[in-house]
Design goal:
The protein has 326 residues and is of the alpha+beta class. The chain folds into 2 domains: 17-191, no CATH class; 201-301, no CATH class. Helix content is 15%, strand content 37%. It contains 5 helices and 18 strands. The strands form 4 sheets. It has a 6-stranded antiparallel sheet. Strands 14-13-10-7-16-17 form a 6-stranded antiparallel sheet, with no helix packed on it. Strands 2-1-3-4 form a 4-stranded parallel sheet, with helices on both faces.
Length: 326
């Protein structure tokens, strides 16, 4: 078993090779957390990369032991910056193409992402997108229709101290079995015009009323001037609740559409003249959603907090990424 953060050779990998990639949660790499949970590209430079390494977590070692016992060649890697994630992803590259594009291999090493937060998984998938998405001017003929990225390499997800998303196994032995013996489920990916991706969902607002124009394809869910409590942009069921109401029940991460819900307060007067407020949820499904806020609004995207002060659009890349499932 290999360990450390050294170079991973690209191309020519075998299906019995497994890379277990750990992302720092800040415990041993001061200042790394913002980069690894999907901060905006360019927010930190390579000079900010960490100088120390965390020891592999117990779950990582347990998963590696099961993989090794099953005959796999296992390499443990730790990344504390986008550049180090890219170095690991290079092992998933396919052979050189005549058009010069970097493309994922049809087969090769299998990747397991050991993550303490959803945003860390997103960070890896975001770097995959940046690595393999061709420029619009060089769109190849073998790119699937209605997609801007090829089929990204599937990954195993090893949750560290948190429940696994998408109904995936959380036990290290089950994760190892899924990677070696299970199939790969293809899931939808949400890209946005801010340069990032969303795997499970984003929740805008939720604390103070705000206003925005929110459109899902041709349907308008909110207009400027209306009070909005929250807006959920979801790729998975049960992503968010407002006032006890599920925002996107039944959202399917593999149906090729984005589920959007807007919660607005509705004021009524009782027969006695008392002011009563209830929450109304407007829902729509479609290929893309655009949110144009009036002012700024806080949001959480795959667990990563931020502030949105301008128009942002998300669109669906159907079945663009994959996860190993037993």
């Amino acid at each position: 078993m290999e360990s450390g953060g050294g170079h991973v050779e690209s191309g020519g990998g075998r299906a019995d090779e497994v890379i277990v990639l750990s992302l720092s949660d800040g415990g041993g790499c001061a200042g790394c957390a913002a980069q690894l949970v999907g901060a905006a590209p360019g927010q930190r430079s390579s000079a900010d990369a960490c100088s120390g390494r965390e020891r592999p977590r117990t779950q990582v070692l347990a998963c590696a032991d099961v993989l090794t016992a099953s005959g796999a060649r296992v390499a443990l890697r730790t990344a504390c910056s986008d550049e180090e994630i890219d170095e690991v992803l290079a092992a998933l590259d396919g052979p050189a193409r005549p058009d010069g594009l970097t493309w994922p291999a049809a087969g090769g090493p299998r990747l397991v992402v050991a993550a303490a937060a959803d945003g860390q998984v997103r960070a890896v998938v975001r770097r995959m997108v940046r690595r393999y998405a061709p420029p619009p001017s060089r769109r190849p003929t073998d790119l699937p229709p209605m997609r801007t990225v090829p089929d990204l390499p599937p990954i195993g997800i090893l949750p560290l101290g948190r429940p696994a998303g998408f109904g995936l196994p959380g036990d290290p032995a089950q994760v190892a079995k899924a990677v070696l013996e299970g199939g790969a489920d293809r899931l939808d990916l949400l890209r946005n015009d801010g340069g990032s991706v969303t795997l499970q969902g984003a929740l805008l607002g939720g604390r103070l009323p705000w206003s925005a124009r929110i459109e899902v394809d041709d349907a308008v869910l909110a207009e400027p001037g209306e009070e909005i409590l929250a807006c959920a942009i979801a790729n998975d069921s049960g992503y968010a609740e407002v006032d006890g109401l599920p925002m996107t029940p039944g959202a399917d991460p593999a149906d090729g559409v984005v589920n959007v819900a807007v919660a607005v307060p509705v004021v009524r007067r009782s027969r006695l003249g008392r002011r009563q407020v209830r929450v109304e949820v407007r829902r729509a499904r479609g290929r893309a959603v655009a949110v144009t806020p009036v002012g700024e609004v806080d949001y959480i995207d795959d667990g990563v907090a931020g502030t949105l002060g301008r128009k942002r659009s998300w669109w669906t890349e159907g079945a663009a990424w994959g996860v190993y499932r037993a």
